[in-house]
Amino acid sequence: MSELLTKAKLAKQAASELVTKSTEQKNAALAAIGKQLVEEMDYLLAENKKDIEEAKAKGTSTSLIDRLTLNEVRIHDMADAMKQLVELSDPVGERLEAWERPNGLQIEKVRVPLGVVGMIYEARPNVTVDAATLCLKTGNAVILRGSSSAAHSNKALVRVIHHALEKTDIPVDAVQLIEDTSRETASQLFTLNDYLDVLIPRGGKQLIQTVVAQSSVPVLETGAGNCHVFIDQSADEQMATDIVVNAKVQRPSVCNSIETILVHEAWASRHLAKLAAALQEKGVELRGDEAARQLIPAVHAATEEDWETEYNDLILAIKIVATTEEAIAHINQYGTKHSEAIVTNNDESIAKFFTSVDAAALYHNASTRFTDGFEFGFGAEIGISTQKLHARGPMGLPALTSTKYIVHGTGQIRQ
Amino acid sequence: MSELLTKAKLAKQAASELVTKSTEQKNAALAAIGKQLVEEMDYLLAENKKDIEEAKAKGTSTSLIDRLTLNEVRIHDMADAMKQLVELSDPVGERLEAWERPNGLQIEKVRVPLGVVGMIYEARPNVTVDAATLCLKTGNAVILRGSSSAAHSNKALVRVIHHALEKTDIPVDAVQLIEDTSRETASQLFTLNDYLDVLIPRGGKQLIQTVVAQSSVPVLETGAGNCHVFIDQSADEQMATDIVVNAKVQRPSVCNSIETILVHEAWASRHLAKLAAALQEKGVELRGDEAARQLIPAVHAATEEDWETEYNDLILAIKIVATTEEAIAHINQYGTKHSEAIVTNNDESIAKFFTSVDAAALYHNASTRFTDGFEFGFGAEIGISTQKLHARGPMGLPALTSTKYIVHGTGQIRQ
């Protein structure tokens, strides 16, 4: 039997044991993992060093090597994260609804674990610990498939997790790492419907698109972010400038940063030159449509491609619009249904924007950078869903659960 | 441009208009559809007759022809169903959660339409009206792809729906019927990710499996039902008999009927012969494992295939078990995660069964036949989900919605 199938069977078996475990048993396991990570720090750093050296030998970029790197501080951070995860309330067992039918049947809808979660991800070894522990907290078994570039680190981290689980009531088999990092193994996960309840890809656009296109296992799509700020006619100049600068500059590489601003022509004629200067001062390259370049002539011309691009970089496209409707139409055509903001003092514009923009998170007078499980107050984040089924936007622990109807009868039969 | 792509674009455009429509506008459209169905009854019956004649010429079975048939009563039933749908509360716009963050951001989670729903289904023309109107009620556009055997009826029904919508504020393009019923068109729906937000197959196992395996559009799986009743040691004899007979006999062709009973050996030795006689009296063919055949020797031997089969017929497999755990293990191995029942007076058995059986609906001392949107009191049903993401069990109107986060700020930026 292949490594994948063997481990999938073990994970499924572990999942059936996990549903019987209490919140206390799961929390004890999380605490044990935090402790073990610190205790085996030297081993983790030594194994991580092997990945780093291989990456350096391959000429990997400094920023990717930084993402790959474990150090004392990062391992202590992981251990601290376990303490926070223990504190979060356990969604499993929560009674969402309860009612009685005229025939006396008592129906309850309760939260249950999903079962076995598959996770395909790139580079960062901290995702290994994150995914494993969020799944354990919600009573799920997990099959991890990380990238070859972090192979030593991931193997070491899962070994440490197993050492911790051995001391607890949680089955060691609940956390499985697929050590074969070939493309073929990844593809086999896509059709493992008998063993996997959901597949979560975390990584670049290419990875996510491949999983969505090829997986028959249901996917939780955590996606790309081509986000916008629309500056309406009545927008406060300083507020609009602060929000646009923040949403573009504060961390340009992440999905909730913006790529294009849509500016009402009346606001643009008064304030666009100053906004452009503020952005350029922060090192942002601007690309404008024709109307924008009338007002800020020095910037490059934006093309169709710019409207479609998630730069993930200090580049911003600018389009002048005549109405709120035009801004909404542009967002719905080019956006990725992630995070969209309007800056305005006009109630009618707000209402139109909130009703008609099709995205996971809509903001009035705030930066798109808040689309994040921690910023929303969830205390944890599995990812940000850009799909519409099951979970949309920042996903906290409940996104890793399903439900069951529990029906109590006294002998009822259907007429 | 192909018929499919043209209609998909129209549906998407209509969906963007639908989000701006009020509950009153949607309800007025539903009422108009009910009225129009009755007004154009002669036309509908004439078109339906064409399908029936073609089916007869092909030698289609009487039961399939019955499913295909429209008549005055059935059309009046459809019109009555519209009145009931108008009465149901509109989930769209419902505020599910609202909270404030320490930085003053006000976050709301509200229900919104999914967008464009794709529906692939077999034979019955009433699904055309059902799907279209449940989608309209929840603000969704719909692309319908019925079977060739109901082509005339479906075309006529959608024409009548369009005639009704022309008199209302709801765009006619919100309901699209794909008239090309070739397999190729169905397959094209599977990858229409740019236009479809969800695909719902309704029909046989083959259809559903094909959609699940091949669709990159997210699927709401409405599935097969290999359901069980477990009769525990302490089960009341009469209650167990009534529930098993009801769950098998009342309507054997549907997914929430049972296919296998698991009987505790202690109960079996006392009561199985009488239960078997009660079933046989109703015309049920029994197939037993070795232990069962010791007690009721005349029945056929059950094979591995029997445990896996959804008979949809008056056939029932019987397996004797020594413990609740053995019953649970059998259900989790062979069940389709649909509906599972335990008949018992033992609290420990109930707790084990509810915790460990992995299915959408679990029953204590009641028939599995209650897994149904109407029996649950939802007032409508899109289908019964056997998947774990998004919706599980009977799906009412909320299953046709997604959510949005609406965030109100006063200029907040991320630090």
UniProtKB/TrEMBL annotation, chains A, B:
Q: Which NCBIfam families match?
A: PRK00197.1, proA
One GO molecular function term of this record is: glutamate-5-semialdehyde dehydrogenase activity
Q: InterPro entries from the xrefs?
A: Ald_DH/histidinol_DH (IPR016161), Ald_DH_C (IPR016163), Ald_DH_N (IPR016162), Aldehyde_DH_dom (IPR015590), G-glutamylP_reductase_CS (IPR020593), Glu-5-SA_DH (IPR012134), GPR_dom (IPR000965)
Main function: Catalyzes the NADPH-dependent reduction of L-glutamate 5-phosphate into L-glutamate 5-semialdehyde and phosphate. The product spontaneously undergoes cyclization to form 1-pyrroline-5-carboxylate.
What compartments host this protein? Cytoplasm
Pathway in which the depicted protein is active: Amino-acid biosynthesis; L-proline biosynthesis; L-glutamate 5-semialdehyde from L-glutamate: step 2/2
Protein name, as recorded: Gamma-glutamyl phosphate reductase
Q: Which HAMAP family match?
A: ProA (MF_00412)
**Any one Pfam family match given in the protein's UniProt record, by short name:** Aldedh
Reaction(s) catalysed by this chain's protein:
L-glutamate 5-semialdehyde + phosphate + NADP(+) = L-glutamyl 5-phosphate + NADPH + H(+)
Q: Which residues form the Aldehyde dehydrogenase domain?
A: 35-301
- Gene, per the UniProt record: proA
Database matches in PROSITE patterns: PROA (PS01223)
Q: Which SUPFAM superfamilies match?
A: ALDH-like
Please classify the protein's predominant subcellular localization into one broad category: cytoplasm
Entry EC number(s): 1.2.1.41
Can you tell me which residues the record assigns to a coiled coil? none
What the record says about family reads: Belongs to the gamma-glutamyl phosphate reductase family.
What UniProt keywords are attached to this protein's entry?
Amino-acid biosynthesis, Cytoplasm, NADP, Oxidoreductase, Proline biosynthesis
